[in-house]
Amino acid sequence: MTDFSPRIPEYWQAQFAGDALGPESCTVNPSLSHKRPAMILTRDGAPSRMTVRPELAACLGQLASTSLSIEDQKTALIRSGITFHDPDHLFYLPEDGPIPTPARSVRKLTPDDRSAFDIFHHEAPEADHEDAFVEWDHWAVFGCFDGDRLISAASAMLWENSPFTDLGVLTLPDARGKGAARAVVLAMLDFVRSQGLEPQYRCQIDNIASVTLAKACGLRLYGQWIVAAQPPSPCHS
């Protein structure tokens, strides 16, 4: 098994701390964000884990005391009106893994690059914006240029109450397959590590191009993470 920094499992263990709910690895955690009232983490070779806010535990009712699996409890929450997002892969760097030098020139963007970034963002397909989530006002932004034209950018946000920065990468369609995305991600990984933080790379499990990019940058799969959306009203039985 890949050796990750101890900070990574320590963070996830804390997320799933709380009072046990049922016979499987399910807990009630009142400190969970209302925006993410339930979450599930699966890892190869380890039991799946689930945690919920108290109001969702109440939705499960007597089901929590039965031998239902986590998948069955998830199904029960869905029937109660809870929506789960599609699962994300979680990628992190191995603790002592070297970060390759980018093959293309990349630099951290400065206020002088704002106009180039705005043009780049406008050129990128609208459908890519939500998946990539690369924004000018994030904690750090790196870019790869072709002349004066910004063709790929990676940004990172500080991940709430954690040692992580959450990465996103966006590349213009005509610049794909030329190493620009790998270059900006590698530069960001190196910068994040230099700040004493752990880079976190998330992508949907069916996004083959993003999974391939993560592996090409030396990131390793930690597990799959599924979160519930904030319900518009208390769930019903």
What does this structure look like?
- The chain is an alpha+beta fold.
- It folds into 2 domains: 7-91, no CATH class; 106-217, Aminopeptidase.
- It has 7 helices and 11 strands.
- It has an 11-stranded mixed β-sheet with strand order 1-2-4-3-11-5-10-9-8-7-6, sandwiched between helices.
- Strand 8 (149-158) and strand 9 form a beta hairpin.
- The radius of gyration is 20 Å and the shape is elongated.
- The model has no long low-confidence stretch (mean pLDDT 91).
Indicate the proportion of strand residues.
25-35%
According to CATH, what is the topology of the largest domain? Answer: Aminopeptidase
Shape: elongated
Provide a count of the helices.
7
Record field, number of beta strands: 11
CATH class of the largest domain: Alpha Beta
Euclidean distance between termini CA atoms: 41 Å
The overall average pLDDT, rounded, is 91
- What is the H-and-E element order? HEEEEHHEEHHEEEHEHE
- Sheet of most strands: 11 strands, mixed
Low-confidence runs of at least 5 consecutive residues: none
Superfamily at the CATH H level of the largest domain?
Gcn5-related N-acetyltransferase (GNAT)
Protein name: GNAT family N-acetyltransferase
Pfam family, one: Acetyltransf_1
GO molecular function, one term: acyltransferase activity, transferring groups other than amino-acyl groups
Domain N-acetyltransferase: 104-237
